[in-house]
């Protein structure tokens, strides 16, 4: 942790919706009114009164009096409330217990809530009991709440102001809270700064007047250069998710405390250059092009998540040279593509599409002409990777003979047979299915020459990438009868959103199944991807692990434990490690773990250190010639 301290400063912290995620009095009503026929309505009434008070729309004293009247609670309910509040302490307060204990002498809880439930909670995190200023209940002999201590200054309008005047703190005062009454301390000149705390609730009337907005305690501590649990506050990390990725992904980043922006469609290059400026993580699918220009506009970008298999839409090399790690989901939708390919293959070879279309206009054409079984037919797979091999297994189970051609020497699975050239594969196959990756060199891999090599009456399928097939040549092959049926899921030019129309020379042809790039679009695949890709990205952001990346040296790391972890990404040129190590030696810093992986262009070194470090040490590491990016984790 950074160990700088501040000149004498007092921290005045609110309780409800700041120290805890909820409003204590609202929750007390919820507990006390269990079984009451109108519980929801009464609790809602109490919440409305709380909100009015917090927003400064109602006299505080009046709101408090009316809430207490509605409560009908007693001591046992307060005990239950305390148990409940223990589970509702704001995440960033829990993470930063050491700040609360280390600065206990300078921290005051000033709240319009009640000591009976505030003291047990805050003292567990190191707050001194005599530094808690809050209201107190009055009880009857049976322990029922019958009112509040009206002599307590906090039960009156302007109570926090009056209290702070009496405290007369001898130094700077920073107020952290979510309510208007917290801001009023600043307005009254009793505080130097007011931080609107928005981790649990952001009230526009309060944030508008705040000196700063802090989405977490880490952000407050970061602003004030105080020791904290996060080197860089997560609430400042912006995640941009495009192309309608699964809600599981949004949740994963929000739970982590990141700021998430969600966009349903893709963005074009200009829009993206603008939107990506302050983004740290971007999630896309197949439509968004992450070009060199986009990457050059992305000043803060650390990682890209391709919520799909293909990564040809991303300039992977430029990303790596800029220290941006790219992850994809290499298997999450494989099965979905295979099932669609099998379904289409059977529909096409049976000539079902024209027959179905005829039925819709009233024509009954019961004939077997031009309809075949897949059993015993030769399936030719171009590309024998994850999808190709899985399709191979399923097709064999259907009784097909499987042949494949791959540029890499691949081991045949089951009874599938490897052929030596694309030409040979095209000549022998009854069904040709493309499953190559989208590298540039595969542009127009299948054109007129290749269609001319195929058997007359072949079934042709492309569920890989649009640019792999020369579309005019495919149209010609369909019209000339070489291709008897085609299934096409991917196109050289695809609409960016569902509102754009689809233009293609393949429209209107017989026995052609056109699908809108949905090979991987099943609920199962999308939910898998929605969990898988964020997990990879978070492992990289939180831990430094690049395992599974498609453009970066892969390192799988243990958790940093109590060490500080330094991540240094550099151009792969000689001498960098020697320079790094000499800086560690000069500052007498003990290394507890070191991991290094390089590829042709970059080096990625991770160093765990046991000792506190200074800002000069960090600056020296950053200044090493050839450094691309430096990050500190703890
Ligand atoms: N339609 C969809 O919704 C959808 C869904 C998922 C994947 N895909 C696409 O499907 C394709 C295959 O995916 P995968 O997961 O099997 O990929 P993969 O990387 O596992 O396999 C691709 C295989 O193609 C081979 N290959 C590349 N170029 C070749 C060439 N010119 N000739 C022969 N072999 C070649 C590679 O060596 C590799 O074995 C990718 O293009 C992917 O983007 C589409
Ligand atoms: O869902 C997508 O946009 C892409 C699906 C597919 O082409 C992939 O590469 O996984």
Structure summary:
The protein is built from 25 helices and 24 strands.
- Helical run tally: 25
Taken as a percent bin, the fraction of beta residues is 15-25%
For the biggest β-sheet, the strand order reads 16-15-14-17-18-19-20
Supply the CATH class of the largest domain: Alpha Beta
- Rounded average pLDDT: 94
Pathway: Amino-acid biosynthesis; L-serine biosynthesis; L-serine from 3-phospho-D-glycerate: step 1/3
Domain ACT: 565-634
GO molecular function: (S)-2-hydroxyglutarate dehydrogenase activity; NAD binding; phosphoglycerate dehydrogenase activity
Catalytic activity: (R)-2-hydroxyglutarate + NAD(+) = 2-oxoglutarate + NADH + H(+); (2R)-3-phosphoglycerate + NAD(+) = 3-phosphooxypyruvate + NADH + H(+)
Write up what this structure looks like.
The protein folds into four domains: 214 residues, Rossmann fold (3-Layer(aba) Sandwich), CATH 3.40.50; 91 residues, NAD(P)-binding Rossmann-like Domain (Rossmann fold, 3-Layer(aba) Sandwich); 188 residues, Rossmann fold, CATH 3.40.50; 81 residues, ACT domain (Alpha-Beta Plaits), CATH 3.30.70. Helix content is 36%, strand content 19%. It has 25 helices and 24 strands. The strands form five sheets. Strands 16-15-14-17-18-19-20 form a seven-stranded parallel sheet, sandwiched between helices. A six-stranded parallel sheet has the order 3-2-1-6-7-8, sandwiched between helices. Strands 10-9-11-12-13 form a five-stranded parallel sheet. Nicotinamide-adenine-dinucleotide (NAD) binds next to helix 17 and helix 19. This is D-3-phosphoglycerate dehydrogenase. It comes from Rhabdobacter roseus. Its EC number is 1.1.1.399, 1.1.1.95.
């Amino acid at each position: 942790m950074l160990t700088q301290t501040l000149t004498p400063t007092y921290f005045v912290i609110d309780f409800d919706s700041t120290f805890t995620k909820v409003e204590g009095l609202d929750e007390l009503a919820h507990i006390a009114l269990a079984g009451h026929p109108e519980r929801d309505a009464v609790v809602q009434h109490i919440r409305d009164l709380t909100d009015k008070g917090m927003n400064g729309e109602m006299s505080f004293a009046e709101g408090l009096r009316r809430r207490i009247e509605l409560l009908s609670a007693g001591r046992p309910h307060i005990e239950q409330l305390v148990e409940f509040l223990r589970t509702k302490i704001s995440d960033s307060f829990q993470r930063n217990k050491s700040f609360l204990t280390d600065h206990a002498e300078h921290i005051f809880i000033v709240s319009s809530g009640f000591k009976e439930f505030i003291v047990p909670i805050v003292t567990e995190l190191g707050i001194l009991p005599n530094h808690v200023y809050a209201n107190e209940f009055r009880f009857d002999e049976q322990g029922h709440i019958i009112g509040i201590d009206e002599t307590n200054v906090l039960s009156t309008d302007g109570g926090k102001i009056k209290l702070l005047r009496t405290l007369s703190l001898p130094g700077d005062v920073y107020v952290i809270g979510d309510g208007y009454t917290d801001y009023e301390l600043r307005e009254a000149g009793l505080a130097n700064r007011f931080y609107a705390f928005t981790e649990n609730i952001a009230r526009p009337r309060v944030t508008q007047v705040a000196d700063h907005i802090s989405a977490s305690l880490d952000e407050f501590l970061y602003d004030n250069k105080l020791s904290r649990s996060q080197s860089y506050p997560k609430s400042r990390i912006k995640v941009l998710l495009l192309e309608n990725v699964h809600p599981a992904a949004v949740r994963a980043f929000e739970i982590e405390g990141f700021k998430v922006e969600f966009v349903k469609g893709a963005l074009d290059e200009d829009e993206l250059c603008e939107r990506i400026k302050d983004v740290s993580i971007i999630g896309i699918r197949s439509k968004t092009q992450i070009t060199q220009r986009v990457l050059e506009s992305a000043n803060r970008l650390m990682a890209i998540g391709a919520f799909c298999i293909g990564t040809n839409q991303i300039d992977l090399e430029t990303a790596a040279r800029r220290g941006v790690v790219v992850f994809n989901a290499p298997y999450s939708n494989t099965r979905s593509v295979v099932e669609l390919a099998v379904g289409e293959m059977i529909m096409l070879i049976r000539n079902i599409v024209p027959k179905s279309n005829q039925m819709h206009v009233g024509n009954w054409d019961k004939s077997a002409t031009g309809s075949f079984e897949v059993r015993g037919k030769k399936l030719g797979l171009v590309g024998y990777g994850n999808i190709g091999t899985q399709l191979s297994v399923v097709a064999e189970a259907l009784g097909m003979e499987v042949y494949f051609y791959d540029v890499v020497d691949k081991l045949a699975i089951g009874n599938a047979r490897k052929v030596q050239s694309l030409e040979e594969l095209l000549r022998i196959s009854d069904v040709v299915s493309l499953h190559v990756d989208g590298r540039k060199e595969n542009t127009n891999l299948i054109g007129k020459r290749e269609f001319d090599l195929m058997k007359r009456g072949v079934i042709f399928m492309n569920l890989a990438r649009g640019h792999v097939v020369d579309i005019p040549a495919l149209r010609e092959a369909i019209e000339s009868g070489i291709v008897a049926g085609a299934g096409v899921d991917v196109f050289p030019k695809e609409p960016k959103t569902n509102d754009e129309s689809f233009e293609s020379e393949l429209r209107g042809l017989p026995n052609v199944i056109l699908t809108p790039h949905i090979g991987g679009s099943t609920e199962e695949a999308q939910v898998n991807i929605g969990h898988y890709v964020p997990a990879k990205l978070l492992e990289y952001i939180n831990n430094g692990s690049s395992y599974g990346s498609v453009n970066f040296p892969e390192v799988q790391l243990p958790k940093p434990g109590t060490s500080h972890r330094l991540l240094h990404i550099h151009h792969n040129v000689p001498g960098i490690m020697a320079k790094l190590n000499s800086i560690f030696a000069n500052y007498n810093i003990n290394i507890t773990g070191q991991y290094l992986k390089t590829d042709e262009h970059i080096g990625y070194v991770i160093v765990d250190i046991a000792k506190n470090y200074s800002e000069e040490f960090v600056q020296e590491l950053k200044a090493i010639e050839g450094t691309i990016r430096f990050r500190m984790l703890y």
